[in-house]
Amino acid sequence: MAGWITDVPAVGSVLLTASSAGDAPARVQMGATLGFHIILACIGIAMPTIVLLAEFVGLRQSNPVALLLARRWSQALGVLVAVGAVTGTVLSFEMGLLWPGLMRQYGSVLGLPFGFEGVFFLLEAVFTAIYIYGWRRLGGWSHFWTGVPIAVSGIGGAMSVVSVNSWMNQPGGFEMVNGRITQVRPWQVFFNHASAYETPHMILAAYLVSGFLAASIYAAGFLRGRRDRYHRTGFAIPFAVAASLTPVQLLIGDTAARAVAADQPVKFAAMEYVSRTSGHVPEYLGGIYFNGRVYGGLRIPSMDSLLVGFSPNTRVIGWDSVPASLRPPSPTLIHLCFDAMVGLGTLMLIPGLWGLLAYWRRRELPNTKVFWMLGLICGPAAVIAMECGWIVTEIGRQPWVVYQRLTTAQAATANDVVPTLTAIVVLYTGLGVATIMLLRRMSRRWRAIDSDNAAGVPDPLVDHLDPLAGRRR
Amino acid sequence: MIPALVGSVLLAVLTLYVTFGGADFGAGFWNLVAGGDTRGERPRRLIEDSITPVWESNHVWLVFALVLFWTAYPDAFAAVASADAVPLWLAAIGVVLRGAAFAFSKETHRLSLRRALGAIFALSSLMTPFFMGCVVGGIASGAVSANATRSHSASWTGATSIFCGFLFVGACAYLAAVYLVHEATRRQDSGLQIYFIHRAQLAGIATGALSLVTLGELRGANGQLFDRLIGRALPLVVLAGACGLIVLAKLTNRGLRGLRFVAWLGVTAVVWGWGVAQYPTVLPGTNLILSNAGAPTATLDTLLVLAVLVLVVVTPAFSFLFWLQGRQLLSSEESEPTTPLPNRPFHREGSP
Lengths: 473, 352
Hints:
heterodimer; A: 473 residues; mainly alpha; two-stranded antiparallel ribbon; 16 helices; 5% strand; B: 352 residues; 74% helix; 0% strand
């Protein structure tokens, strides 16, 4: 999915800065369109793998339920990828329409990873079309294999785009003379200093969002009393993917936080309320920063130093290291978003461990209501955690758009953005509502088909689905 | 050499977008003018069936073209994005509405909703090509200044821009109609075949006329470009005209073999005629030329590597997609498999 970069300001932070910054409308617009697109991008990156896994299970074990799920998921994926393709295009337009200063200066550098993303995007679109529309006529394993390039190019595309964002956090791989780029080293642009931790963190986030979201839909059905094999399988496949990656994500996230402390100390200072450079820095869980003090929250002495350098004496750089004009706005927002991301990520470990334990002991998922409620919560929780992570990385980099090179204000367009911002907010609200309504409608239709089936009415799709029926070409 | 090659790559990607993505927009035009529910049902069904599996892939060329534009010509891109912000926003909004409405209408079964979504799909299919045409017309007539930092209506509302906008709509509709003739032929639906033959003829004549008018306007707006169009780019201009006439003749004689290719070649010749005439300028009326457009050598080299990658990886994938689509192996889940419709002439309601 095309370009998610620059700025994800939450509306709250923008309200705080709107009075002072002329670039605020542009930032809100970028944040809104990106925050919307990123959910679809996650689904586009990771959902194909989950669909393929279901198809694999279905074909391998002659499991018609898994095959039916794969087929229905790919239909929903078709809608979501289409919406993602157009919202991604909007972001490509916005690169120029909102940030001409950035493009004029650095277009020839950050365009390179975008170019590779374009190749992956083309492959993804082509094979998605083949996969989604090929169910009827390309049966069995040959259909399965047409889906594999989608999963691979989804990961490749994500690597490319995230490397643009990580380049903005740690720019490198170019020479600049008198404000003009004179030399570019593409490999160093692509594999910049921050891409090593930012890229895997985002790709795993995409898997967590897709897996937990898909699972939560079936958890909701289960909680409403639909405790059949269809709902169990529909929950188990995506949940297993997301839950098994959650611990890995926490480890990578931990590494990334330490790397940010070294690479972008001011961002880290805002994340952890480090106002003064010192040792024995405490860790705050929650709390609001106001007038030089942290109100509320849980204070753990020396814990932040310990996390950063494995010793309570570790010196952590505070935001006093730079003048106030070079600090990000609202440490409270950044800190709370960071805490929310970490907290929700940790919460998401619980149902996975619980499910694993139950499966190990009884070969089935727990029947307890609490487990399925946790499964239901994990979907929205994963989305919130991912959005919070983007708020941290984007607001935390302010006032820079390209870290220590170009400020967001310098990059922003001189045009009035308020009209397009208004139009886009209306348009995207409609788009979001329509997408959700449509998915619900599809699900209701499928449920009606399933209850007809239970009543003995034949499903026109079923004979196409059953691999044993041998309808292959 | 390398700057010229990169320019050709951008032109090739634009060609692909115009001739494939453009045709999908053109199909939206025919959807719009297909008439009421009963009368328009069959052509709409054909339109939907033929663009459903391919429109997203065709659309991606636009993203690719944008990325190439800003990477190779960052100054020109920033100038165009600033001066032409209004039409670009409108084109982008059209992209969103078109794609979303089309994707949603396929999954919607209630008639009133489908009708509303169909209308959005059709109207937005006009919006995007029109405003993109305005942008291109403005660039070609030299109305965008190199250091533009603010939206400037004169850079896209000149006569050339507006005619170019209509020309884009016309060319899209023309290509779509020709492609749809082919689709109808393949489905052995002679009624729809005749239906789209008539429309392809009309669109062909309109597009030809619009091309001449736009060319005439360009003479006043950018004399140098006009001179080069009838100078060094003349062979391409002649080719475009010849292709248009051949298509019209073939449509009249019902000689449908190779029709799509000739129509495609004609539009391609227009795009390349523009490119050749404008060479080596990136933004006419400014000093931004291919070899001095802001990107360092390593960037241009990498873009060529990308182009090769597209050629060896993406082209086979696209061919595979079109091959499957051509053999009718791709169908949407809910619609019935596309059986040949009864072989009866297609008339308007009420006529025998």
